[in-house]
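Q: I'm writing up a methods section and want to include an example of the input and output format. Could you take the sequence below and give the corresponding predicted structure tokens, formatted cleanly so I can copy it straight into the document?
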Amino acid sequence: MASDAIKRLLALLPPGRVLAGAAHMAAYESDGLTAFRAAPLAVVVPETQDEVIAAVRFCHAEKLPFVARGSGTSLSGGSLPVTNGIVITLNRLNRVVRLDPIERVAVVESGMVNTHVTLAAQPYGLHFAPDPSSQSICTIGGNVAFNSGGAHCLKYGMTSNHVLGLKAVLATGEVVTFGGSSREQVGPDWTGLFCGNEGLFGIALEVTLQLLPRAEMFHTVLAGYATLEAAGEAVSAVIASGLLPGAIEIMDALALEAAVAAVHADYPPNSAAVLIVELEGPREVVAADRVRLEKILAGSGAMEVRVAKDAAERLAIWKGRKSAFSAVGRLSPDFIVQDGVVPRRKLGEALKHIGEYAAEARLRVANVFHAGDGNLHPLIMYNGREPDGLARAEALAGKILRMCIAMGGSITGEHGVGVEKRDYMPEMFTVDELDCMKRVRAAFDPETIANPGKMFPAAEAPVLAQHGLHPLEKAGVISRE
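A: Here is the clean output for your methods example:
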């Protein structure tokens, strides 16, 4: 039966669009969370939006599970293939459909790389604000699916704050258009609902993005501290002062060691942690804010404070931070990147607990995080060749997530739930809340074929939509093509 489905798929699409060989499947069997693997039935490599739509409609007719995938940088297993399902990879849908520097809007296809949006907008003095660490690789479709953030989300918000509209094909094969180019919308915020759906609704084809003027001036400061707690207290002092930096990031000693080894980052020696604070905006505002920041850091007990003198030094500071996740691979054969959130005022307490938990588990943990919004990224190092290596790492990860929940935080800030955190959903949400989420999902995907097995802990059974018109068609927000 599987071979018959592949034959029909091959007949449906142009030559070269369907990959079914074992070597091809191996390249797609996992995403950034390599501890989880699954072999898909086939991989579809569409080059046009019509080919994506045709593939989704085929899956709907065949009741065949599918997973949309960009560059596979998900760290929660969000683009993990479904066994006996297909992967629809979107990297070749990478065109700029329209860029209007007057309206400050870019309409791009979902396979476009995040950084390439800014490169296209740069000649007009504009940029795309969300900047995940994987921004030079990750795609806009994935950013939308997981509502990605990045180092500068403290000031600029998440991906959903910059998506004005989108065109998508739902799991039913229906093509929808949500929102548009205007920043003012009337009626339900379907665009906002689609952002962060983790691929459970369908596949974004085109995304209308808000572009922002590039800041007139940047002031990037690197401060080294003798303890991680001292760096955390400095963050609290900066936020309490009323300053709103573009970014506030912390890296601990292990993360620094990895960054230095990988990209030869030049950070203050013998620091237990470094704090990166970046001010940006009009020259006059930055000039005033930097004086306030200097006073705060001077009183924070920093061992050393460095100010980037030019764009090259600024980029060097950020290169070390952006490479931190991949750089940890130099210190450990395997690692899990966690993504919990705690209130800012509890950062110091959270870091203390993580250190205690790591010692108990006899595992090393490198801490890299968006300190401004309390989004922790502990990198739990383990050896997958040890019989209990992964189990111990997962147990530690679970302990950290439960700590975040107990502190009034969240199990995810920007990486999503995927397969990694789905079993913790009942600890954060009630049965009724989870049922509501499933009902919303069923309105977009009544057969549960879009990225099944993600987000929800229990085995999912298809939930049929209402008879007659599709619920979204009743609301007048979808069209049939």
